[in-house]
Amino acid sequence: MTASLSRLAGRVALVTGAGQGIGRAIALAFAREGADVGVAELDPVKAASTADAVRAQGRRSVCLVADVGVRADCERSVAETVRELGGLDVLVNCAAWAQPGIPVAETPDDLYQRTFDVCMTSVFWTMRAAYPHLKKSGRGSVINFASNAGTEGMAGNAVYAATKEAIRGFSRSLAREWGPDGIRVNMIRPIAASPSLAGWAEENPKLAAVQARAIPLGRFGDCDADIAPVAVFLASDESRYLTAVTLPADGGGGQER
User: Is the dihedral of CA 191, 193, 194, 195 positive or negative?
Assistant: First the structure.
């Protein structure tokens, strides 16, 4: 099967957190558009499943079982993608982790550190390792993820919210720093029915219905149909003059600040 539009033909992407939800949707959308994809994921079964699905689209893939909260795994994911697939044009930092519902006063240091390592420090590690390859590409694109938890605040999830706002400041700074090297750095701020949100909605159907109705478009986004196409746009030449931007793929449900 060949890509239908091939907007990413000849490109190599690395997607972290690609085993499920938004990360998997992006990896498969990239493959449909002609990209070869490095799949970085903590769960080996999910990593293999996504890599196989990329190959089923007729593209090459490397399966990377990795904990992005560990620097060596981040660096290895970049290195193996470059070695196995021949370069790196697009980096998508989608992996995230949180334990909501814990007040700051009750948050232990190890939970704080793990949240920052997975959500924010991993972005630093992967981007630093990817820089020379993205520069060599001449059309490098980095896509990071913001959150309404950060832009609006979220009681019981303050540490996660802090990481997401840190990513925005870091991304805007790198957009300025790396722009002269032909590397664009942008962010997506989604509201999507990821596995974690879907699980919460199943446990809290009435509250989920209220929150969905509060979104102007009346629903949570679909990972494949609503979020992945935004990533394809940011990875492609269609957004060649766009950098340091946070795109709110949220159905109008967030407040930009």
Answer: positive
What's the token pair of residue 84? 């196995």
Of the candidates 213, 158, 217, 249, the one whose C-alpha atom is nearest the C-alpha of residue 205 is 213
Q: Give Cα separations from 138 to 111, 124, 191 (angstroms).
A: 39, 20, 31
Q: Pick one of 3.40.50.720, 2.40.128.20, 2.40.30.10, 1.10.357.140 as the CATH number of 12-192+223-247.
A: 3.40.50.720
Render pLDDT for 38-57 as a digit per residue (tens, 0 to 9).
Answer: 999 999 999 999 999 999 99
Q: What is the DSSP letter of 38?
A: E
Q: Is 160 a catalytic residue?
A: yes
SS3 content of the chain, % helix, strand, coil (to 5): 55, 15, 35
What Cα–Cα distance (Å) separates residue 85 from each residue in 41, 59, 162, 253? 17, 10, 34, 38
Mean pLDDT (whole number) for 58-80: 98
Q: Which residue has the tokens 């909260």?
A: 69
Annotated catalytic residue within 112, 131, 160, 241 = 160
Token couple for 63:
């399966």
Q: In angstroms, rounded to a whole number, what is the distance separating the alpha carbons of residues 16 and 26?
A: 10
- Asked whether the whole model's pTM tops 0.90, one would answer yes
